[in-house]
Amino acid sequence: MRIEKSQIDQYNDGLFSRHNNQFIFLKEQLAEQGVQADEIIAELARFQVAIPSWALGTGGTRFGRFSGSGEPGSLEQKIEDVGLLHALNRSSGSISLHIPWDIPKQADSIIDLASSFDLQFDAVNSNTFQDQKGQELSYKFGSLSHTDAQVRRQAVAHNLEVIQYGEALGSKALSIWLSDGSCFPGQSNFVRAFQNTLESLQAIYEGLPNDWKMFVEYKAYEPNFYSTVIQDWGSSLLFCQKLGPKADVLVDLGHHLPNANIEQIVATLMMEGRLAGFHFNDSKYGDDDLTVGSIRPYMLFLIFNELVEGMQRAGNSSDAYAWMIDASHNVKDPLEDLLQSVEAILIAYAQALLIDRPKLAVARQENDVVRAQQILQNAFRTDVRPLVREMMRRSGGALDPIGLFRDLQLRTQLTQERGAVSVATGL
Ligand code: AOS
Ligand code: ZN
Ligand code: ZN
What is the CATH number of the domain that holds 221? Predict the structure, then answer.
């Protein structure tokens, strides 16, 4: 299914006058503060957030899964869904595939389909956290870190195969998240597990094409509950430093112990030039994988504050990093949820671009703590939604993506096409 440009234009016409009043008002307000709205809009327009193939269907917990209707049942349908998102917000221009859930059987036709929606292929994701049908050796006790060299070889071979699938589609990165670890004290030798993992990662790194990156994701716990091999950003960075310049650290917002200062982690990784990018989500307790910005929007803003500062220091732009949503849901329509997530990311980015950095530097230098906080919160408390909407409108998207999604009854149409009980492959 596709959304016609005329449907978007017609919808926008109805909202334009109200939106434009709000936009002009904000633009003038910002101009008084020396901020050019058009420059922020241009930055927002180039910011593309990849959609993971596994977030297009209803997720679940170990207590069950409540499938929605009209979920994509094939890779083609997943691409169509991301095409819908991108048509609505013009900010979701790539899809991140998961192997083996999304094996592209005919790469050429998959590329053609994606191009027809103006989509590219983001990082490919390997999976050694589950056993697949017909798999020779089990990952029950680990994969790249396993005590048995044969299991490690099997997991390395899987990652090399994932790279091949990605190459055929034009992906430029392999994301590795390991569930390896232990559930009980004494179960694992920490040092051996680290060394085994390093050797395995080195073998994968050797098979990485020259223009590819390896993203190394860390996670404090789950599904292993006593230790994980790549438990935190320090372990991940250590692996990356030992592997070489093509390996960088991937930050998933849900993968930290409670109250971790994620923005400081981001600043440090950027200082070292080792930040690969993000898996965005939000959480109250752990790896809850909730809608981005739904629980801790100020934290998201503080992360973007460091990102903007880090990009300015490095002299690069948002294109230099990988931005992805990694979420999974039980109660919302996955497409509406993803639209909310992308909007929350753009809002946080726009707010961070408003920060008066020269004044912040002076306040910090003078140890004016109150002023420093005010500068950040002035930006955070600015309603930047008119900027985000204007960016989407100028880029050819809808002024209110969720509004149009509902107006066109897209889920009903998808359900008619795909059926009420179709189930997406994945988490
Ligand atoms: C798991 O908790 C991680 O966030 C992974 O990044 C991701 O959910 C998984 O790799 C999906 O395949
Ligand atoms: Zn993740
Ligand atoms: Zn996760």
Answer: 3.20.20.150
